[in-house]
Amino acid sequence: MSAVQRLRVLVVAPERHPLRQPHAGGLEAVVWNRVRWLRRRGHDVELCAAEGSDFLGGTADFLLPSPRWERAGDVSDSDNPVGHRRRMTDAFARVRRRLAEPRRRVDVVDNHSLHSDPILWSRDSGVPVVTTLHTPPLPEMVKAARSLPGSAPHRFLAVSQYTARAWSAEGVDAFVFPNGVDSSHWRRGAGGDGWVWFGRIVPEKAPHLAIEAARRAGARLRIAGRIGDPEYFAREVQPRLGDGIEYLGALRQPELCDLVGASSVALVTPVWSEPFGLVMAEALMTGTPVVAFDSGGASEVLAGLPGCTVVPAGDVDALARAATVLSRGSESATTRDHVRAGAAARHSVARRHREIERVLSMAAQGAARAGDPIRAGETVGADETVGAVGA
Q1: What gap in Å lies between CA 375 and CA 391, rounded to an integer?
Q2: Taking every annotated instance into account, which residue ranges of this chain make up the domain Glycosyltransferase subfamily 4-like N-terminal (predicted)?
Q3: What percent of the chain has pLDDT over 70?
Q4: Which domain holds residue 67?
Q5: CATH number where 337 lies
């Protein structure tokens, strides 16, 4: 441990999927790495997450219910089965009661839930809460945030300036705290002659457009990721497979790193307001160039980094042309080292986690109320800043 105090932290995970590999998405990967790192630093960390998650230990106090779908075809990353919201509310009420017990009291809650209830714990129980905003504004979370009095020990972080501006427009101000990638896990690869697309297979990520781009360029494309919307996969992805387009399923991180690192270019095709886009930073960390649709925070994440091109959202021809250009020469060791070095300088998870440790410590000490806040533009590490939007 450094000079930072040893903390008792409750990390509240996104509740829809267990926190384990293969990760359900970038959000789950970020929180999984957070728990692992905080524990390695010597903090006393408990996890509130769906059953089946890593790091839960033997207690059932902080288990959250996973959605119970009646039919496999009903599975969705955006909807909930009947009764699920009530089960979640009951589960979070149980957690709040546990936190009120002196023996279960924590110094700070590191909240990544997409549910509104953990936001209110700072108001109702007085426990310091740091909530990271990983998505566009969600109405119930906005309502909860607006209900917090100024005295509530709560801090909001957002994963990009784009996301912070979106929440600020709804009256919720946040400091910008981008996601990070573990460079010890995402190693540099040697490249290859095929293209890659990886991530959640859902309509808003639009892998079918990556397939169309590869077809127009005559390129081979491999796709990896969890099917979050079976109907979309069956309608838009599965019929396009074959003849050089291959779906590999959901891969654990080591296998996914090998796949991405053995590719000549990674395609990122969001057609929604992408809050961050962790797959971009992960691909670059392997030395693989990235071409992405200019949607949400994508251009912010990639701005100024080597081996990147941003094209207009939905423009498949531009995507195909840019990917073709970036793929040329991407097996060069010099090129891949340069791409990886740029990604590591901006998106290193070690740097991010050292700073979140300080944020959690300050929240636990009530520093924001004692006149020692993180100020807009304050330097973080050698060359990074945390900026406040609307603060």
Answers
A1: 9
A2: 25-184
A3: 89
A4: 8-180+349-389
A5: 3.40.50.2000
